[in-house]
Design brief:
By secondary structure, the protein is mainly α. The chain has 3 helices and no strands. The protein is 91% helix and 0% strand.
Length: 117
């Protein structure tokens, strides 16, 4: 009778352990799915949640795609800024050249008048 009770307890403990392990696996899988579907996942989060290598590769690919989008956006912004500043610089240069020409003419006129005096 004691052996039978011990066998039942052992079976119950084994079943509980199996159920707990299944729940842990299910919880880990759900966590992995949530992390994999999240757009702001770090590789460390994925590794710490017992992820598979395929999940990590997917996250890295998503991160790389995001970096490419950011790079493209940044390059467009930089080009726009450069073009605007370049155009402004060309206009300023033309203004300064015109002013220099005007000042040179004024100096020549003053020098001519000094010579006549």
């Amino acid at each position: 009778r004691i052996l039978a009770d011990m066998a039942r307890w052992d079976a119950a403990a084994s079943a509980a352990a199996t159920a707990a392990a299944s729940q842990d696996e299910l919880h880990a899988k759900n966590e992995q799915d949530q992390l994999a579907n999240s757009s702001n996942v770090s590789a460390l989060q994925l590794v710490s949640s017992r992820a598979r290598p395929e999940d990590l590769v997917g996250v890295l690919e998503q991160g790389l795609a995001e970096l490419r989008r950011e790079e493209s956006s940044t390059m467009a912004s930089l080009k726009e800024n450069f073009d605007r500043q370049y155009s402004s610089g060309k206009e300023r240069s033309a203004e300064l050249l015109n002013e220099q020409g005007r000042l040179n003419n004024t100096r020549e006129q003053v020098m001519f008048q000094q010579q006549q005096l």
